[in-house]
Write a structure and sequence with these properties.
By secondary structure, this protein is of the alpha+beta class. It is 25% helix and 32% strand.
Length: 208
């Protein structure tokens, strides 16, 4: 998919730069930026991370995403009500520069349907220095199959924002877009100025 054909690749000169301790609330977790590791090191890295944090690697397919804030709770799926399980996954997220991938246990995956609740605060805390986190947009499947962007986000169809190079830079929904738009004034700028002058003229007339 060409939306992600130009992932920003970090330098592999110092692999330790790709491992960060992220803090979300009262939790301290390790996040791994896979771009900081060479292909050879990446091969067994997910399994090693899963052993360290004692959480499994997600092995399935995801179509629907919810933010933790929107879902409210993480123990039940907001779509079907089934139980969820926290797992490691490669989350694809948009930044102010280019889309990136982070291996992090920030997902609570439904046991019955292709839905995940995402702890965005945890992902944002682990973003590589120099990048500004915007939103999580999908899942990368450890190169076993093509990555996928969410078909729905918080129960709504997402609207993806691309730059001139067709890179994905942000995501929103129609509801969020409507909330962001300032309410339209009843009058245009010229009309406002006209009415202001009319009010001043009326005050002057009262004084005569």
């Amino acid at each position: 998919m060409r939306l992600f054909r130009k992932f920003k690749r970090g330098s592999a000169q110092d692999a330790s730069e790709g491992i960060r301790t992220a803090v979300s609330g009262d939790r301290g977790l390790v996040t791994v930026d896979l771009d900081s590791f060479g292909p050879g090191a990446q091969k067994g890295l997910p399994e090693e991370i899963a052993k360290i944090n004692r959480l499994p690697l997600f092995d399935g397919t995801i179509e629907h995403g919810f933010s933790r804030r929107a879902a409210g709770a993480t123990d039940k799926c907001p779509r079907c009500g089934a139980a969820t399980q926290q797992q490691n996954a490669n989350f694809v997220y948009a930044t102010d520069i280019a889309p990136r991938v982070m291996l992090v246990p920030a997902g609570y995956f439904c046991s019955s349907c292709p839905t995940v609740i995402v702890d965005e605060d945890l992902i944002a805390a682990g973003v590589k220095q120099g990048y500004r986190y915007r939103c999580v947009v999908g899942i990368d499947y450890f190169r076993k199959k093509d990555f996928e962007i969410f078909k729905t986000w918080n129960g709504k169809k997402p609207i993806y924002v691309l730059n001139e190079n067709q890179q994905l830079m942000d995501m929103t929904t129609e509801d969020e877009l409507g909330q962001q738009q300032p309410s339209r004034s009843k009058y245009s700028g010229k009309e406002k100025q006209k009415r202001k002058m009319e009010r001043i003229a009326r005050r002057r007339n009262r004084r005569k």
